[in-house]
Design a protein that fits this description.
The longest helix is centred in the middle third of the chain and has 54 residues. The two termini are about 40 Å apart. By secondary structure, this protein is an all-alpha fold.
Length: about 300
């Protein structure tokens, strides 16, 4: 999945996530405990939905041989993939070939799910940074209103700055790990979608509808994760704008301005460093897929 030179970055990201969870999961703050509980529940629901949709898209292939046998009186395999030396016209050969094709489906489905799950969890974890920074910002406002010690405010503000620097470092590592993978994933899914659209328009091969849905959904999921990172940075920036700036000391104001400056230059995900990874790019990709398919179909028909 990753080039061997990125193993060190991959290990750093995994250890950093573990450290982040261990540092805050045992907190006594009810608000933070509620956040981690909701975060775990939302992540679980997200993974279950993705798993269900991928499995359903795969299962669209299996009714096709039954349909062709009972309604068209024709014996066909699940997918047109064959083994040398195996005669699919014989019962034993057909069973062996079907088992082989089912194995391909299982390996492909769970391989894609494992890869997508891993990338999703390291990207969704950025929400923890945003929430912790937002909570500390709110706490600074409370301290300013209650005229608490300036040392307390200074400590919280510097903690926010250090946390944001860690988040920026984390996102740069994630971008280094994912920009090639997202490029390959979106490029291959786009090319595959164009081919499947053409097959649907010309051959009316019904099972590929599920595969088409799976490829388009994979593009959408990748872009959704990139858009999630943008929204996370936007949430941090908006939470910083509501701080009572005039009540800060001059030194704290300088720290605050430095933090705002860093927030205005967020580390975002890209597709091979060529385009931002977000839903706007997803819409552009879908429109290009449709345009290229219609162009090819028009040329072939004429």
């Amino acid at each position: 999945m990753f080039h061997i030179r990125y193993v060190e970055d991959l290990q750093w990201v995994i250890h950093f996530i573990q450290k982040l969870y261990k540092a805050h999961i045992k907190t006594k703050s009810k608000e933070r405990l509620a956040f981690f509980s909701n975060f775990a529940f939302g992540t679980e629901v997200f993974f279950k939905v993705i798993t269900t949709l991928y499995i359903l898209s795969v299962f669209t292939f299996f009714p096709y041989p039954l349909y062709m046998y009972y309604f068209e009186n024709e014996v066909v395999t699940i997918i047109p993939v064959y083994l040398p030396g195996v005669d699919e016209t014989q019962l034993a050969g057909y069973i062996i070939l079907s088992c082989y094709q089912v194995l391909l489906f299982i390996l492909a489905t769970f391989g894609v799910l494992a890869c997508d799950f891993f990338m999703a969890i390291i990207i969704i974890s950025t929400l923890i940074f945003a929430k912790l920074i937002s909570l500390d910002m709110a706490q600074i406002n409370d301290d300013l209103l209650q005229k608490n010690s300036t040392l307390t405010v200074k400590s919280r503000l510097r903690n926010i700055l250090l946390m944001h620097q860690e988040m920026t470092k984390y996102m740069k590592r994630v971008e280094k790990l994912t920009f090639i993978m997202f490029f390959g994933q979106i490029a291959s899914s786009s090319i595959g979608s164009v081919i499947i659209f053409y097959v649907i328009l010309t051959l009316h091969y019904l099972p590929v509808y599920g595969l088409l849905f799976g490829l388009l959904f994979q593009i959408f999921t990748a872009c959704l994760l990139g858009n999630f990172v943008e929204l996370t940075h936007d949430r941090i920036y908006k939470s910083a704008l509501y701080i009572n700036f005039n009540e800060l000391s001059l030194e704290d104001q300088r720290i605050y301005r430095f933090f705002i400056k860093n927030c205005q230059k967020p580390a975002l995900l890209t597709i091979g460093a060529m385009a931002p990874l977000n839903l706007a790019t997803c819409v552009t990709i879908f429109s290009r897929i449709y345009s290229i398919t219609m162009l090819i179909f028009t040329m072939v028909v004429e």
